[in-house]
Amino acid sequence: MALCFSYNIVLSLLITLLVGISYMNRNLRLGSIAALVLALVTTLTYEKVHPQSVSQKVFTVSIASGSGSKAGAVSIPFSPNTLFIHKGDIVSWSNQDTVNHTVVALSFNSGIIWPQGSAHGSPTYSHTFDKEGTFIYVDRLHPYMGGVIYVDVPTSQRELVSTTGSFVKVNVEMPQNAAYENNYGPFFIPANTQVTSGTIVTWTNKDYVAHTATSGDGFSFDTKTILPSQSVSLTFKNKGIFPYFCKIHPWMIGSVTVS
Question: Any idea what the CATH number is for the domain that residue 151 is in?
Fold first, then answer.
């Protein structure tokens, strides 16, 4: 209210001043300039006091039927497995499977998402993203399932790709202080590595302590221990999205999407 009152005072004074100048000079050109300035001030004042609201959007992610049976049973367990949204948007996960699922990230935890028709609980879970960043999530009950959500993340920050000859090499960094859970990431840069089949992915440890990059299912890939300043490279041939974590610091979560 105080903000509106102060702007109204300023606006009234400007109107009085400009009208007075126009009247005293009786100059058409000066009067026109005064009118233009008045229109500009009015517009800016209105936008300051009444800012335009950004519409909130709701995105739905389907947990595919059969996805909980075993790894690879469904090509895309979370559909879509990658979303590009804006701050304030809502993502809702819907369980279309016959078994329980979860969606867990560092900043949210769904608990059990029950099958459709279950009397035990809801088959959906929704989360409002009020912070910018890259959010990797996994299904703790079926850790081979994962997805990624980009909230107002520029394209240049989504992947680090460099081509050498006839093959593609992608670098993933384990940044300094990644071992501290309260940093809230990113724990791997990029958090989600998007590559094509046959790509070589190299993890480089730039932290002060050892880390690993281990697939959520425990067998698809494992870099083993990577000491500070060391690197490990792996080739990805199979298509899909592969969530992974650090076995030493399990809150460090990343993913590799192979298309």
Answer: 2.60.40.420
- Measured at the CA of 76, the angle between CA 72 and CA 80, to 5 degrees, comes to 160
Is 5 a residue whose pLDDT tops 50?
A: no
Instruction: State how far the alpha carbon of 183 is from the alpha carbons of 103, 163, 177, 251, in Å.
Output: 20, 32, 8, 11
pTM: 0.66
Residues 134 and 214 grouped into a single domain:
no
How far is 246 from 185, CA to CA, in rounded Å? 13
- Averaged pLDDT score across all residues of the chain: 80
Provide the strand spans (E) within the chain.
58-63, 78-79, 82-85, 90-95, 124-128, 133-138, 146-151, 161-164, 167-174, 192-195, 199-205, 214-215, 231-236, 240-245, 253-258
Give the type of residue at 64: A
The residue segments making up the domain with residue 141 are 58-155
The phi, psi pair for 255, rounded to 5°, reads: -155, 155
Q: CA–CA separation, 256 vs 259, rounded Å? A: 10
- Which of 135, 155, 175 is a domain's end point? 155
